[in-house]
Amino acid sequence: MLESILIANRGEIACRVMHTARRLGLRCIAVYHHADRTAPHVALADAAIELDADIPTAAYLDSAQIVAAAQTSGAASVHPGYGFLAENADFAAAVEAAGLVFVGPQPEVIRLMGDKVHARDFAARAGVPLAPSVTQDGSLDAFVSQAAAIGFPLLIKAAAGGGGKGMSIVREAAELAPRARTAMDEAERYFADRRIYAERYVERPRHIEVQVVGDGQGNVVHLFERECSVQRRFQKIIEEAPAATLPPELRARICQAATDLAASARYRNAGTIEFILAPDGEFYFLEMNTRLQVEHPVTEMICGVDLVEAQLRIASGESLPWRQNEITQRGHAIECRLCCEDPYQDFRPATGKVRKLVVPQGDGVRFDSGVIEGQNVSAAFDSMIGKLVCHGQDRASAIDAGIAALQAFVLLGVDTNIDYLGRVLAHPAFRAGELHTGFVTEHAAALAPPELAADQEAVVLAAAALGVAEFRRLARDTPEPYASIGAWRN
Amino acid sequence: MPRIQSTIQTNSADFRRNAAHNRALAEELHRRQQAARFERPARDVERLASHGKMMPRERIDKLLDPGTPLLEFSTLAANMAYDGEAPGASCITGIGMVQGREVILCVHDSSIKGGAWYPLSVKKIVRCLDIAIENRLPVIHLCDSAGGFLPLQSELFPDKYMAGRIFRNQCILSELGVKQLALVFGHCTAGGAYIPALSDYSVIVRGTGAVFLGGPPLVKAATGEVVTADELGGCDLHTQVSGTCDYPASSELEAIALGREIVQQWDRPAKWPLQQDPVEDPYYDPDELYGIIPDDIKRAFEMREVIARLVDGSRFHEYQPAYGTTLICGYANLWGYKVGFLANNGVLFNDSALKGAHFIELCNQNDTPIVFLQNITGYMIGREYEARGISKDGAKMIMAQVGSHVPKFTIMCHGSFGAGNYGMCGRAFDGRLVFSWPNHQIGVMGGEQAAKTLADVKLRQLERRGEAVDQATLDRVYHETLEAYQHQLSAYYSTSELWDDGILDPVDTRNALGIAISAALNAPLGRRGYGVFRF
Amino acid sequence: MGLDFKFTLDQKDHDVSVRARRPDLVLDIDGRAHTVRESAAGDGAVTLEMGGRSYHVWRVWEGDRLHLRIDGRSYSVGYEDAIAAAQHAAGGDDVLRADMPGVVVAVHAETGATVQTGDTVLVIESMKMQVNIVAPRDGVIEAVHVALNENFDKGALLAALKATD
Known about the structure:
The complex is a heterotrimer of chains A (490), B (535) and C (165). With 535 residues, chain B is α/β, with parallel strands linked by helices. Helices cover 40% and strands 17% of the residues of chain B. The relative contact order of chain B is 0.11. The radius of gyration of chain C is 20 Å and the shape is elongated. The two termini of chain C are 28 Å apart. The interface between A and B is medium-sized, with 17 and 26 residues.
């Protein structure tokens, strides 16, 4: 096992990595920006090195400073967490060039999977399904006939573009030719490149991903799938394992596809292959994340494994900790991402100080926390401050546990999405597993805070008033006989 | 402590007749109070509103802690003076609670003639400051007054207890370490300027508040200078330049909010530790007082029945129950406070006077405040009683009572005639507070007695002049005298002249005494010691 | 009776006062009486009994806001002390505050400048949106509390108008 590790991250994931590393006997070194000097990951570490940067996030993206910090502190290895430099091939290479162990895949694999076009080609070669697509190479008629062959609806976009320019959804064959022509004109205008591209447009798509772990020698196991369909602003907020509803045969195929892809890449480390699942049961490769995933705890809870431990063992040169047939799952786990944000103002980030934090305890409740009471939550970092994961014997009991834990959760001082998450879990469509990536938009009205009834309003106001020192004094410190005589006039 | 065993029959004809009579009196009281408090010429109300001012009682309601009492003094002061043009004597005074602190409110009533001071206004203000001094109660002045009512200046300015006494009392309060706050809502003219100037803290409302020794007309007359009230003594001048006022306020509400916050800064000096037990409501319904008080001033009634409807649990420890029975003495709890009661149950004889004197000494020995319940036609007169020394026995009672170092409170429950008024701590004897019931009458003697005496005098005058006297003339003289006399005997006349601190609906007596006792505990006990008793 | 305590909940204004204290505390909430009992819940929170039900209440202050968590639901209640409320009522809005965190991208009015209602005093950027911070009333700028490119948090005081007579 490695002797020590520098965690090139912050927040809950830095803490989570340190917990396992410490259990395995590794010395933990944190890096931090000044804005994070009192953050829990700094307090938790055996040593902490400050990174210099004007903008707080820049510190955690400063590859050179972090490698230097690792060398200065004598760290044997570097764990990148997720986000920041976790999928930066140059950083992984720099860590290895400095003679340190990078707890992650080989830099060339990171680079491969980081390039969407190359990753797609690679997946195709590995036999992983991709959304059917056609690229127009000049002939409109050929494009129209090839595109029509894919089936409708279709998404047309500029091959060179982005940002929605030249993009349109075509639902009927008759619309295809005129839309394609318009799209080409727009593509020409915006990108000076008339080429357009069409792919199967999946309505009400679900997001299914598969956790894999490879040893870099071509040995790969999967740890089943996760469903991450509930998203806001293209970011997951609720994830679960296993998927809400998935026929066993389809599930096996998805897991196999993921394993095949990782094995083809001789993947080392824990990784995740993401798929789009269409309502008709077709699934398409989306991308591969070459790192520990935010939502990895749901897999850990149903499989009874520690993925960070697996990462560290593999990075130490050990073989895969499990054979595929040793990996089993038990029950259902749901993760809620706790974010400091206002769910009713387009999820606008909220800032402030965490004045009160009470984390629910109990069997099957796990909170991966990056926050402590008294901590400032600034706009400088991601709004996610922790993950509440609940396990139950089945999906229904996991939902109930999640609702109960969210209700018992107290985080006061900053606006959070805690109550919003509770309403998502309690929504009948969620319970029924009717999930797709547009879930929160579709159910926005039902997920808005219910109007306060007058008597509830009175309870809130009474509780608030008694929290105001001068009101409290007025209500409680009136001496006798005045208090008893009350509002009497002679 | 044993409970008084009430013997009244609430369904008896007497009880029902008395109840109807006394309820009518209470309603009459409330009607008069309501008028004195709220009936104002529309012109005055509109003028206040046009200046963005609140009515004085709105200011009080905003200033006091919500859900707490106000013990108002002398609501009907001046109700029989100045043709009723100065209801409440143009000011509002009382004890209330601000930020959990007992304070005296001294409020100019600008809804009547600009809050001008009449002679009885000055008497009422001086009295409330005397109450503040005697009880060491902080004072909040709510200033908004045009100044002295000039046509009556000779009756309010020059004498010892006239306007100057207000400012003298302010200084005495300060010397005693008692805090004062002035909220200046309107004008403080001439002497009135000293109210904020002599207060520890003052807040002045921008635009309407002004403080000056001489207002713009006087300045113009004296020096020819033409100046607005605001330039002469407004908010900015006094808070930025002269330093006469401390806090500027942009509105009356802000002034009140600032005032409350200022009071919050004040310490709460410890009260003297009177024994205080858990409070118990009276066992007998205080509402029954209406049926107990007779509808005739000459009719006697059982004062124990009154005590039973004032005190905690109607419990009473009676002292010397078998001796001097026309004066009831004993201990009871009132709002949990241990107090001694002296209550008239007939004319005072030698033994009752001696018992009273002794019991007053016991209360002083015990540091127990004393409540006097007056219903007294006097000390017994006649050769036999003079021979037994009724005068010197009455003197002993007065000596003991005046020499008391414990606070005293007096309720005028019915009649208060002759020297009995003295022994039972009448107005002249520094009771901390003196309240009357609406049925109360006071005079050197009873109405019919006085009318007869005066009619006799008249008869002798006529006889000396040799004029013929017929029965009709005699009757006319008797009835005219009785009517004039009775007018002055009435509780409304008493309270108009500030011979008391206000008329109470009898059922309010318990609350009033609770606040009075609580307030009294703020002042340290007086010096122990008596003068010479004649034995 | 008494000065009301002013609260805002869900953008609505509410008045709370004390109506009675014995035998139970009775609060006056928007003119209606509510009997309230409060006791320590033992876990640092309080138990509030109202209308025959009991509620588990956590509360903390954040500036002029009180954050409450009552039976698994969070609330944010604004409170204005009596003096501020009176000034507010008398003088209108004298301060300009940020209703979201952001950065100053332009300063249009300096200290001492005369502004009219609706004039832009500052432009801020938050969540990639530029927002004009405008004068709430006619007046004179007493102070601009932030500088160009300065970051601020939600609720930060950006500028103030001089009090008017």
